[in-house]
Amino acid sequence: MRQFDLTPLYRSTVGFDRLFSLLDNQTGVNQTPSYPPYNIERVTDDEYRITMAVAGFKEDELTVEVKENTLTVTGAKAETDDNNENMLYRGIAARAFERRFQLADHVFVTGAALDHGLLHVSLKREVPEAKKPRIVQIEGGTKAIDASAS
Question: Could you point out which of 43, 92, 104, 140 has its C-alpha 20 to 30 Å from the C-alpha of 11?
């Protein structure tokens, strides 16, 4: 059960809808499902990798989609009835899934690869030059005074 109500924040702020939606989703009753398991690692200062365990899925059964700042990985197993009569026990999960990740601003997906049952999604942060910090040169005081006197 939720401990607090975010409705007043929606009414009194402008431009923070995405942030409050994230908080609202994380504090809800339905917690994020644990299937399939995944890791998030920092490769370099501006590169990240999400690794998901998707054993039993082929490339054509997985979808990696980026829309706005949301990365969605979906898996849908193709139905085959030819192995069902000989299957005595099915312990490898082959159920459909959908896993969503919220990406920060300026984070882009650069690629995805399936290797030995692990799906690797590569991400990179590319901050535009206009948003990067810059150094302003300090000039002598006489130039600034002469320019303002003119």
Answer: 104
Domain shared by 18 and 50, yes or no: no
User: Parallel, antiparallel, or unpaired for β 62-67 and 70-75?
Assistant: antiparallel
From the centroid of its chain, how far is CA 133? 25
CATH number for the domain spanning 73: value is: 2.60.40.790
Residue ranges with strand state E in the chain: 38-42, 47-53, 62-67, 70-75, 97-102, 107-115, 118-125
Task: Indicate yes or no: pTM above 0.90.
Answer: no
pLDDT tens figures, 39-57: 999 998 889 999 999 988 8
